[in-house]
């Protein structure tokens, strides 16, 4: 799925630093986590991909912002049909995943589970090791998955797709 147009739409009004805890590198790691989970679980790759770049897109600060998920879900509605296409079922899943990713514990749908796990596997960026008790999918709870994702998050790994596919140079703070 081509995410660059979605990212460009997000960045038009993005309130936080691109290199912040909830910024571009986080979105890219959540995307890679989510695609890994989707491969194993059969979750919708399209929903997981859009969730990765939209779930924190409407945060107004890096700390406490309990309404950022519902705002992201509303923002997704403004982009649907203009920047991306999803059928009604997948769009409902995207909205539920965005709206509930901070406060909800689990959900019966595997795609929503994969979205939330993808985000929770990146908690190492803020010094928190993911706890298997708070992960929904079997693959996410595996020690090897947690170790892989936590190592990347803890060292603030910037996936190459940030520059190569999304055209964002975090070192120089620019977009191309």
Walk me through this protein's architecture.
A two-stranded antiparallel ribbon has the order 1-2. The chain is 52% helix and 2% strand. It has one domain: Hypothetical protein af1432, CATH 1.10.3210.10. The radius of gyration is 15 Å and the shape is globular. The two termini are 20 Å apart. With 176 residues, the chain is mainly α.
Quick structural summary:
The protein is an all-alpha fold. It contains 9 helices and 2 strands, in the order αααααααααββ. The chain has a single domain (4-167), classed as Hypothetical protein af1432 (Orthogonal Bundle).
CATH topology: Hypothetical protein af1432
Number of strands: 2
Would you list the SSEs in sequence order as H and E?
Answer: HHHHHHHHHEE
- Would you identify the regions where 5 or more consecutive residues have pLDDT less than 50? none
Query: Helix coverage percent of residues?
Result: 40-55%
Structural class: mainly alpha
Q: What's the number of structural domains? A: 1
The CATH first-level class comes to Mainly Alpha
